[in-house]
Amino acid sequence: MVVSGYRRNFISDYDGLAGQWWDPRGPLAPLGWIARARAEFVPDADAGAGTPQARLLDVACGGGLFGPHLAGKGYRVFGVDLSATALKDALGHGFDAVARADITRLPFADESFDVVTAGQCLEHVPDPFAVVAELCRVLRPGGTLIVDTIPDTGIARLVAITLAENVPLPGRPARGTHDHRLFVNRERLARIARSHGVELRLLGLRPRFRDVVRYLAGRREEVRMVPIKSTSVLYLGVGTKR
Fold first, then answer.
1. Considering only CA atoms, which of 230, 172, 241 is closest in space to residue 205?
2. Which pairing describes strands 75-81 and 139-149: parallel, antiparallel, or unpaired?
């Protein structure tokens, strides 16, 4: 995903990674694992005769890694990103419509989506809490907000930067992908969402250990993420707007 504003933590424009969105052993592979886990929290859309099709917005959608996991849930899927090349990929992977836009200023009316998701992008912007407010703005009452990001903890810095970006293993993100100064405080994120009508439930995510072993051995192309109580390395928030 590409976002505007703070650029230090991008060693290159994500347009230069266009051919790697769907590489199961490339630097963007972990985003796909997390996208699958995020989709588990998307409720099936209400459907019926005369009922408008429900709308889901994926913010900073990148090449559309979230799209395939929404099949059968009943949504018209919209994506927003700054990368035009990534958006072209998204259209080929389950997205019905895309827009090139800044996620801090979404080009949509208030209360226009039934589900709003934002995965692995809040830790790349100078003001993630302004983005959260914007996500809540475009979410209708009764709709679901789902976000996942990296907390501002020492262990998250160790895992996401020191280890993940430097140990030469498949799926390693490019060096410089993350800046620990942008990692997102959990309490403040929940407080901002609450002030905009969404009470978030926070939970942690971690890779399934057996999958990691098989992935590193070349016997598996995807690692499943499992929910855990600890939110100190990677966390997801889900809630319903009042």
1. 230
2. unpaired
